[in-house]
What we know:
Layout: H1 3-15, H2 18-25, H3 29-43, E1 48-49, E2 56-57, H4 59-89, E3 91-98, H5 115-125, E4 129-136, H6 138-146, E5 152-158, E6 176-191, E7 204-205, E8 213-216, H7 222-234, E9 239-243, H8 247-255, E10 260-264, E11 272-278, E12 283-291, H9 298-310
Parallel strand pairs: 3-4, 3-5, 7-11, 8-9, 8-10
Antiparallel strand pairs: 1-2, 5-12, 6-10, 6-11, 6-12
Helix pairs in contact: 1-2, 1-3, 1-4, 2-3
Amino acid sequence: MELRQLQYLVTVAQHGSFTRAAELLHLTQPGVSAQIRQLEKELGHRLLDRSGRGVRLTRVGEAVLPHAQAALASAAAARQTAQDFDGLRRGHVRLGLVAGAALAPPTGVDDLPGLATTLAAFRSAHPGISLSLAESTTGRMLGDLREGRLDLAVLGLPTAASGRAGDDGWQTLAGLAVHTVLEAPLFAAFAEHHPLADGPDGALPVAALAGHALVSTPRGTGLRTALERALAEAGARSTVAVEAAAPPQLADLAAHGLGVAVLPDPAPVPGLRTRPLIDPVPLVRIALAWPAGRPTAPPTAALLGHLRTTYPGPRAGA
Length: 318
């Protein structure tokens, strides 16, 4: 008994015709018929009734058919399993990164390795899987994930964003799976000679930013969305005078007097003062995102598993 004979039997049974089955199998009708007769001889029973205008299963054929289908399904699963292991030996993953925020360990988070270190460990374990990294805004990467231009992305999101109906975050997350890496409050950062430097140290209400020129990331980033939402909630109106892609650039621009930067707690920068923001506390999170509605290729699944193990998230162990 051969798998191809079982495939011929199933195809003929589905279509009730040797001719149609032969067309679908790209074989000749006599060839299909001969192989099924060989199968019948081996089993010692007729499986198909050829006496009418069409072809029907005999009672024995009806009993054998589920076993033939199960055998074909098991063979297909075995092939897919082997291909999946092959995919772990070679393949390619397209990884998107929120601009400038992922290739160094976050300030104040000593127990998390930088992404470059994590990717190096992954490549050491899977040397046949190549990676392409592309920096972009969160807004663009959400579209790239949906349209298949990216396999996986590291995003910056306002913490409210869930993709569920009724939340006050980004509805554009619907259809994507999201794993939070970390959550961080935002700070105001400004030059030592800035008017806000004349006030007392300590937390700064978001409303105090009103009327000051701001330095922030472009629209379509999680940081900018979190900032705009906090300003609206505080009833404050302010203008983003300078845009830059990455928090280190924002801090440097603010230190040179170009405005008040709003960013996660930065590393020390000469000439820069920082104060945490309150009322409300703007929060941004770094998260992994990938399409939820289609199968994940083995190389992407391997990288995703590695990243989720390395960055278990703020609630891990809670």
